[in-house]
Write a structure and sequence with these properties.
The complex is a heterodimer of chains A (about 900) and B (about 120).
Chain A lengths: L2 H13 L1 H25 L4 H12 L2 H11 L3 H19 L1 H30 L10 E7 L11 H10 L3 E16 L2 E11 L3 H5 L5 E2 L15 E4 L1 H8 L9 E4 L2 E8 L15 E4 L10 H6 L7 E6 L5 H18 L8 E6 L13 H33 L1 H9 L4 H41 L11 H27 L3 H6 L7 H4 L1 H30 L2 H4 L6 E6 L8 H17 L3 E7 L10 E6 L11 E8 L3 H5 L3 E4 L13 E5 H7 L9 E4 L5 E7 L15 E4 L9 E7 L7 H11 L6 E5 H7 L5 H35 L1 H9 L4 H33 L11 H28 L3 H7 L1
Parallel strand pairs in A: 3-8, 5-7, 14-19, 16-18
Antiparallel strand pairs in A: 1-9, 1-10, 2-3, 2-6, 2-9, 4-7, 5-8, 6-7, 11-20, 11-21, 12-20, 13-14, 13-17, 15-18, 16-19, 17-18
Helix pairs in contact in A: 2-3, 5-14, 6-12, 6-14, 6-15, 7-11, 12-15, 12-18, 12-25, 14-15, 18-25, 18-27, 18-28, 20-23, 25-27, 25-28, 26-29, 27-28
Chain B lengths: L7 H13 L5 E2 H11 L8 H14 L2 E7 L5 E7 L1 H35 L1
Antiparallel strand pairs in B: 1-3, 2-3
Helix pairs in contact in B: 1-3
Chain lengths: ~900, ~120
């Protein structure tokens, strides 16, 4: 404990400064007095005694200073002084401080936002018992880069025979339609899990019970389900009487046995499950589900295990390999092969299948946002540089008064670190908003993803690291550069500046690169905007206004073709009778849907040796009058009618592109082609080519077939062309479907305009891209203006003397103007040239969302270049004007 | 702990202060007088070195200070050795003994070895 008094002493010197100072003064005074007394005792007069004592003692304040300097906290005190000084000098230039702060805060904010999401996804343990022992068991197969799980029978063998795990569990997810009396039928996602699921995770029931040991063992024996807490709250209003009630899953009765606790969101971090069903009930969830479940090579489930304490991953992997090998020997025909892997659960997020990619993807993403921070830092560094050069006089003076280079550096660094730290705090707030916006955005785009942002110590640590990095990046270069004060030349102050570029290569490079980057960003924004303008009914191939859509899934409810046909018939009739409906139709095709149906087509008479001879095309089965109701342009032939039914000749409507590909230069009407297989379909109509899967796709073939001639089990979408606001009809449509089948949920109920604007494959990326790019472009523009203004005005002020002499020798104002503007213009044009090359390259490799839309990018580039140059000239104009007002007489007098 | 082996002067002053405090607590003035007395007026401790040294030793935790009253009823700050200060004094004394013995040996040896050659 001997350090305790020492520690207390040190704390006292740190925090009780004034007491220590007073003590020190009193102590030395006492010493002086004692000396004085001794001197007097030796026979000196009082005055003499005092002076002698003082002489003997030496310089009082000097001693105090020495004492202070050797105290353990000098460095802290100096640091504190540096920061206080930095704060004062930042406060003195609020404009600079605000811009620098905001720039850095944005950069850091974006980074923390993304990091908080990555943190949530990858670093948070699952909220279950002993999450550290969870592992995923999967196989790497030669056929796919995604990891593969194990089929149910194989899982059962693994569970029985592998000794390394205390338990194994398997699950998958499936879309289901859930209906109950008193609530709207709903299409949602279920986790389809083995019976031991909840006991495996050690999760207790919030209400009712979870699966019992005997349940989920026998195929088809347990029509029971557990609801997630969130789903229970949302769809059943938290009604406790739901437990024990019968609900309808895809038309089959199920009993709700319990509610899972609120903290438990499912098996996978980042993926929410609303309903939990026993895997043995797969028969109700998909066609031939029961047989598929029992096949050894068919439907792999994701398998998770709990490592026994003390068992290593390698041991477990070896044991799994042994059992898998035994299974493969016993069932050679059904073996899929592959190398078994046992991976820690945290390393398999967000999906065990993607294990190999996710680290890469998140690295790339983090790298991209890191770039944003770098750009922000470069901008702020330039600002710091500008500021530091303006303060060169101050630096010189300090240096002349004895400040060392390190002290000057430290002062500048203190400013940049103070800025970065404050920006980091602001950035945390911005990041918090940004993250919650991103989370909302992602979860609305992909309903399955449970994206969250976790704000824990990791995020704060990250923000602190960002602040350090930003402080160093923004401060180091300017500090090193500016602190190299050459007293001789600076004090003489006669420096004849040559030109901006030769005097300040570093800053000139920064300005040039800023101009280049902002040109690229502006061009991007412009291209995005132009692309958006480009989107019209003509371009898309159908009318998006006054169109309502609603999807339902008859196949999931076990409708046979007859029953489905009757349902469709009735629905269409009733929908057409709704007030305000101009036309109604049905189709399996939904433009820009997340999952588009595709088919392969071959013109009759073409020899097909393999898939390479077939054409993959977006495809739809549609009800009569589809072309007319969707507002597609029929170029030739006719629309489908009620006559196109089973027994009638098989027909198809294709688009122009397909006609051109299949029968170039010929009349496509009456030609025949195979779609998916025989029999051949006769082309009865040709529509104008539109966009089908993505707004930015290249012109693609498209084929429609009458629904009545080819029933299949994919979901159907009802389209209503309305007179008024289509959204007003949503309740009517819901009632109508409810009346026909109370258990059938409607989903994706929205207007086509909204679907188009907010669709991930439609305009959303373009709109977001445009907004971000334009915003960034403007931001970059502001920085360019400030950077250029800074460089040019600084150089101009350095050349005041030269300009004065030129004017005295008879130079005209115009000459001076040209001289100064030339400096700025050179930098701008260099930047524009580099930026143009970069944006050309970027436009060429921009993702396919811009395909076919980026054609008109050269006018955009021209406009952006002109805008940039114009604004840059304006930024140089002010210092140039100032330079022309130089009074030669004053300048010469000052010499 | 022993950080100033190289700086003989400073280390020596520290040692002298510790030694002066070995018997009883003392104030700064007393320490300087004591050192002068023990060394037969040979060693004069400058106040400019004494006080920084005292604060340094206290920072190291080898001595501690307390306000008290001096012989002639004056308020003064009294320094006393701490346990670790006592240990430090012992080790420094031992080191010093070794060092001075070694230096003595060298000085004697050098004289002895050099003379035959002359």
């Amino acid at each position: 404990m001997s350090w305790m008094p020492q520690f207390k002493y040190r704390l006292r010197t740190l925090f009780r400064r004034s007491v220590v100072e007073r003590d020190m003064a009193a102590e030395m005074r006492a010493h002086l007095e004692m000396q004085e007394q001794v001197n007097r005792a030796a026979g000196m007069s009082p005055d003499e005694a005092r002076f002698a004592a003082q002489r003997q003692f030496g310089h009082l304040d000097g001693i105090k200073e020495t004492v202070r300097d050797q105290c353990g906290w000098v460095w802290l005190e100096q640091l504190w002084k540096d920061f206080r000084f930095a704060a004062r000098s930042l406060r003195k230039s609020p404009g600079f401080t605000a811009v620098a702060l905001l720039t850095l805060a944005l950069g850091i904010g974006v980074n923390t936002a993304v990091f908080s999401i990555i943190n949530n996804l990858f670093f948070q343990p699952l909220p279950v018992r002993d999450p550290g022992s969870l592992v995923v068991v999967a196989a790497r197969t030669p056929v796919s880069s995604l990891l593969r799980g194990y089929e149910y029978p194989n899982y059962l063998d693994l569970r029985a025979q592998v000794d390394a795990f205390s338990d194994l569990m398997a699950y998958s997810t499936a879309p289901i339609d859930l209906a109950a009396s008193g609530v709207e039928p709903d299409r949602t996602y279920a986790a389809v899990v083995t019976g031991n699921f909840f006991s495996f995770f050690g999760v207790p029931a919030a209400r009712g019970r979870l699966f019992l040991p005997g349940e989920g063992q026998e195929i088809g024996a347990d029509p029971i389900l557990v609801l997630s807490n969130a789903y229970w709250q949302q769809h059943f209003g938290g009604d406790p009487s739901v437990v024990g009630r019968s609900v309808n899953v895809n038309g089959h009765p199920y009993i709700v046995v319990g509610i899972a606790p609120a903290t438990f969101t499912g098996t996978q971090a980042g993926l929410s499950a609303n309903v939990f069903l026993p895997v043995t009930m797969t028969g109700d969830l998909m066609t031939n589900g029961a047989q598929l479940l029992q096949a050894r090579a068919g439907m792999p489930l994701k398998v998770m295990g709990r490592l026994k304490p003390g068992v290593s991953l390698d041991q477990a992997q070896a044991e799994v390999a042994t059992v898998v090998e035994r299974i493969a020997r016993t069932y050679p025909k059904e073996s899929v092969g592959g190398t078994p892997l046992v991976i820690r659960e945290q390393r398999t997020r967000p999906d065990p299948g993607f294990t190999e990619f996710m680290p890469l993807i998140s690295k790339v993403f983090m790298g991209l946002v890191g770039l944003v921070l770098l750009i922000a830092c470069a901008n702020v560094a330039n600002l710091m540089f500008l500021r530091a050069t303006v303060r060169r006089r101050e630096m010189t003076l300090r240096s002349a008064l004895g400040a060392s280079r390190w002290q000057l550096c430290r002062q500048l660094l203190a400013e940049s670190f103070l800025l970065a730290a404050t920006a980091s705090a602001v950035g945390l707030v911005l990041g918090y908003w940004g993250a919650s916006w991103l989370v909302r955005f992602v979860s609305s785009a992909t309903p399955l993803a449970l994206v969250g942002a976790s704000w824990d110590w990791r995020v704060f640590l990250f923000a602190a690291a960002m602040a350090l990095l930003a402080g160093l990046l923004t401060g180091l270069m300017p500090a090193l550069k500016v602190s190299r004060v050459d007293l001789q030349t600076s004090l003489k102050q006669g420096g004849v500046a040559l030109s901006a570029a030769s005097r300040h290569p570093f800053r000139s490079i920064l300005v040039v690169s800023q101009v280049a980057v902002s040109l690229v960003v502006l061009v991007c924004g412009g291209v995005f905007l132009r692309s958006l303008q480009h989107v019209s009914p003509q371009f898309l191939g159908f009318r998006t206004d006054h169109l309502l859509m609603a999807t339902f899934d008859l196949g999931l409810h076990g409708y046979n073709p007859d029953r489905a046909g009757r349902f469709q018939q009735q629905l269409l009739e009733k929908a057409r009778a709704l007030p305000g409906v101009e036309a109604a139709t049905l189709g399996t095709f939904v433009p820009f849907a997340l999952y588009s149906s595709l088919n392969v087509a071959v013109p009759e008479g073409k020899t097909v040796r393999g898939i390479q001879d077939m054409t993959v095309t977006p495809y739809g089965l549609v009800a009569p009058d589809f072309v007319q109701a969707m507002g597609m342009t029929l170029l030739r032939g006719r629309d489908f009618s009620t006559q196109d039914k089973t027994g009638a000749p098989m027909v198809a409507i294709i688009n122009e592109e397909m006609a051109a590909q299949f029968w170039p230069g010929q009349d496509p009407l009456g030609k025949r082609c195979y779609v998916g297989g025989p029999p051949a379909l006769e082309v009865v109509g040709v529509v104008r080519t539109g966009r089908y899967m993505m707004v930015g796709e290249a012109a693609s073939p498209f084929i429609l077939q009458p629904l009545a001639q080819s029933y299949d089990k994919t979901p159907l979408t009802l389209y209503l062309r309305t007179q008024g606001d289509p959204a007003a009809l949503i309740p009517d449509v819901r009632n109508l479907v409810q009346a026909l089948d109370p258990a059938l949920p409607l989903y994706n109920v929205e207007t086509m305009d909204r679907h188009l604007n907010d669709g991930l494959l439609a305009l959303l990326p373009l709109r977001t891209g445009a907004a971000l790019a334009v915003l960034q472009g403007l931001f970059a523009l502001v920085l360019v203006v400030m950077g250029l203004y800074g460089v040019v005005s600084f150089v101009a002020s350095q050349r005041t003397r030269e300009i004065g002499i030129r004017l005295a020798l008879g130079a005209q104002k115009g000459d001076v103007l040209r001289l100064v503007l030339g400096d700025g213009l050179k930098l701008t044009l260099a930047g524009v040239a580099i930026g143009a090359v970069l944006s050309l390259a970027l436009i060429r490799v921009l993702p396919r969302i811009l395909y076919g839309l980026a054609a008109g990018s050269s006018p955009v580039m021209l406009a952006a270049g002109l805008l940039l140059t114009g604004i840059a000239l304006l930024a140089c104009w002010i210092p140039a004007r100032r330079a022309t007002r130089v009074n030669p007489v004053e300048i010469l007098k000052a010499e | 702990m022993t950080k100033e082996k190289t700086d003989l002067l400073q280390g020596t002053l520290d040692m002298l202060i510790l030694k002066a405090l070995q018997l009883e607590p003392m104030h700064g003035f007393g320490i300087s007088v004591r050192i002068r007395q023990i060394s037969d007026e040979v060693l004069q401790v400058e106040q400019g070195s004494l006080y920084p040294a005292l604060y340094r030793l206290e920072d190291q935790g080898w001595i501690k200070s307390e306000w008290g009253t001096s012989d002639n009823n004056r308020k003064a700050k009294f320094y006393s050795l701490t346990a670790s200060g006592r240990r430090q004094l012992e080790s420094e004394t031992a080191n010093w003994a070794k060092l001075s013995a070694a230096i003595n040996l060298v000085l004697k040896g050098a004289r002895g070895a050099a003379s035959p050659k002359l």
